[in-house]
Amino acid sequence: MGGARGKRGTFAVAPFDLNGVSVLAGSMATVDLAISRLSTHTPLALPVRVLHGTRPGPVMFVSACVHGDEIIGVEIIRRLLSRISPKRLSGTLLLIPVVNVLGFIMHQRYLPDRRDLNRSFPGTSRGSLAGQLAHAFSSQIISRCQLGIDIHSAALHRSNLPQIRISNERPAAFELAMAFGAPAVISAPLRPGSLRQMAAEMDVDVLVYESGEALRFDELAIRVGVRGVLRVMAHQGMWRRSEGDEVPARPVVSQRTHWIRAPQGGIFRATRRPGELVQAGATLGHLADPFGDSDQPVTAHTEGLIIGRSNLPIVNQGDALMHIAQVKSFHTAGERIEGIAEEALSDPFFDEDEIL
Fold it and tell me: What confidence score (pLDDT) does residue 243 get?
């Protein structure tokens, strides 16, 4: 995004145009991207909050609720809006708190036709509802940006440690991930039809922030997310870094993860939680039938970091129980994770009363 040099060496930044709405430098506006009409004739739109800075810089998006029940990103974006002033912004920030509007309203992961929006990119203007929504996001949001952060949580009845997922095919994304400063950075391949895969084809670096549980708020996950977005913005020169905003410890990096699955059906009593390091053979919980017969321990296959787990005690044979990431520097990983978590939770509770 460029601008003409004005008086006293400053830049006169041109307005940012989105869907026919012109947003002046130093201001913000909400732009509705029309998608379709419901069966009741009610219009369905994708709402975007545009913050257009007073100085040139990148265009970046932050999106949430691609899966309608993964609501934690809505709160992260709400808190970001209480902290960021477009008058102090370099570049343009596009905030999309609810991408899957219908799934969000119905508290469901998918769209009404049971399609997964995150397997529907790039979509088409004449396809299914999921395809049309994906097309609108690809053509009007991703295509305008140089980078983005897509916020997710674990699925229903699961919880995730705050983590960034990136592809090894995008080296620049690793630098952004380390700047974000989540406890863990996980290498995950690009999945066909995903927002991240579509962005890579458009040469846009996207971080996926995974944390918390579907249909729930988690204070640590929210705070790590807010601070992480601000750190990435500072890293890109969009926002002035505040004192104390440095990442307190280097995130733990993993190139490989695996799920521990239930060897039989029954009732699972977990004894470990996300963020804990486990040795090979360590007990993760106990599995038994409702009578307590055939009680057996469930153990880790290798040493690693628990990055996710199931919160549902009732399990069938083969159900995923614990998600473990293999990490280097195993003996220092715990201290680093604890340092990042303590730093996030020790901050004053930032909300509307702390507007920058």
Answer: 53
Nearest to 121 by CA among 212, 229, 201: 201
Q: How far apart are CA 18 and CA 141, in angstroms?
A: 9
Residue 215 to residue 69: CA distance in whole angstroms: 5
Which domains, and CATH codes, for the chain? 3-247 (3.40.630.10), 256-344 (2.40.50.100)
Q: What is the 3-state secondary structure (H, E, C) of 111-132?
A: CCCCCCHHHCCCCCCCCCHHHH
Q: Give residue-wise pLDDT tens across range 173-229.
A: 999 999 999 999 999 999 999 999 999 999 999 999 999 999 999 999 999 999 999
First to last CA, the chain: 24
Sequence-ordered strand ranges (E) for 114-195: 147-152, 158-166, 184-187
Q: Is the peptide bond before 122 cis (omega within 30 degrees of 0)?
A: yes
Short-list 238, 209, 261, 211, CA closest to 90:
238
What span, in angstroms and rounded, lies between the C-alpha atoms of 137 and 160?
A: 26
Phi, psi of 127 (to 5 degrees): -90, -155
The values of phi and psi at residue 121, to 5°, are -80, 145
Report strand pairing: 11-13 vs 3-5.
antiparallel
User: For residues 226, 227, 231 and 237, what is the CA-based torsion angle, rounded to 10 degrees?
Assistant: 60
Mean pLDDT of 297-304: 96
The CA distance from 22 to 308, in Å, is 43
